[in-house]
Specification:
With 373 residues, the chain is mainly alpha-helical. 56% of the residues lie in helices and 5% in strands.
């Protein structure tokens, strides 16, 4: 009995306790000092500077991780954001320009860009608060609410400040990021009707939008494939698997990081497979598309597949203010923080190659996909 009473609480127990206590409190925000108000303005300003487009966001994540490698999500976010950029430029690339109307491509880009922008404007201020907390040598996470950051993340950052448990922080950020997007993007009637329902077939069965790729070495890829994009549960589990693939194999982590540092993100798939993709269109207008791919290699004398850089594919978009409101309502999300000891090899090249071949066949046939009817 004595040992039970004096057992030290685990981090997850402390997180649950703090979240329960916060949910009971009325929550009158403290009055800001002039210094705090100035800090919040600086954070908003610095976030806006880096939140111009997918390339600037992706670069900012990596720069922060190199300064603070204990914040694992910064590198996971960098690599996933690279994939977001590749998905955006695919819409103006070799295959999809043959399969989608201009209007549909623009609608899909707006959906991808909104999600990418929303995540950054929520996550990056957290990074800057952490950075300032280190500088002042005291936790400043009570300022989270003034930046519309969830009470869930305020609690997590407070615990991280005390315990430095990198896994819990990283997975909490996965939960936060996907939960933050759920109502604002995935369940948003505008995107649900105009994008997700309309593009379901393309997302799930035809294109590479559901592949998350982590390049390393010369031609190596690791990663995972997402099925059921509309399921919050599945997206969180995917984030956990991606974390395992990236961080549980130290040698691969080093190789992926080395690759990221030596290959600035442009949005073109040439970044990782220049033997197949080119950011210059080598095609001749008016000539029918010919089969070029075989087992992820170009056939002899075949032209490379066009994959433009983001700056040439899309202009910067001015976004409306993020929707207010805290997504955190259910204490059971803490269960996702329990570590899974599942081993992942991250093999994805074969699956990705098959997707590219399916895309090429569809482009050649110029199939009339139902969404274009």
């Amino acid at each position: 009995m004595f040992f039970t009473r004096n057992r030290q609480k685990t981090t997850l127990e402390l997180i649950r306790e703090e979240l329960k206590n916060k949910s009971k409190q009325a929550g009158v925000p403290p009055k800001l000092t002039n210094a705090e108000g100035m800090l919040l303005e600086q954070i908003r300003g610095r976030t806006a500077v880096h939140n111009l487009n997918n390339v600037t966001r992706t670069k900012a994540y990596l720069e922060f991780y190199l300064l603070h490698p204990e914040i694992h999500w910064a590198f996971l976010g960098h690599m996933v954001s690279r994939n977001g950029g590749w998905n955006m430029t695919d819409l103006k690339g070799e295959f999809l320009t043959r399969l989608l109307s201009k209007k549909d491509a623009e609608t899909f880009f707006a959906f991808l860009e909104r999600g990418n922008w929303l995540i950054f404007q929520d996550v990056y201020p957290q990074f800057l608060l952490y950075q300032e907390s280190l500088r002042q040598n005291k936790p400043l996470f009570y300022l989270c609410s003034f930046l519309n950051i969830s009470t869930f993340m305020e609690t997590i950052w407070n615990q991280f400040w005390l315990k430095h448990e990198t896994y819990i922080l990283a997975i909490a950020m996965v939960i936060n990021e996907q939960s933050y997007l759920e109502k604002r993007v995935v369940q948003n009637p505008l995107y649900k009707k105009g994008v997700l329902n309309k593009f379901e077939y393309i997302l799930q069965d035809l294109l590479s939008f559901n592949h998350i790729l982590f390049p390393y070495g010369k031609k190596n890829l690791a990663g995972q494939t997402l099925h059921q994009f509309e399921s919050l549960h599945e997206r969180i589990l995917l984030g956990k698997r991606l974390y395992t693939i990236l961080f549980k194999n130290k040698e691969r982590l080093k190789q992926v990081l080395d690759w990221a540092k030596t290959h600035p993100h442009t949005g073109s798939r040439k970044d990782y497979w220049p033997h197949i993709f080119n950011n210059v269109n080598e095609g001749i207008p008016g000539f029918a598309y010919q089969t070029r791919l075989k087992a992820c290699q170009l056939r002899p004398r075949a032209r490379k597949i066009y994959s433009p850089s983001l700056e040439y594919a899309w202009k910067n978009v001015s976004q409306t203010e993020a929707e207010k409101g805290d997504w955190f309502k259910d204490i059971r999300v803490v269960d996702y923080l329990i570590e899974d000891h599942e081993k992942m090899d991250g093999e994805i090249i074969n699956e990705y190659c098959k997707t590219l071949e399916r895309l090429e066949i569809a482009a050649i046939a110029k199939k009339a996909i139902s969404i274009l009817d």
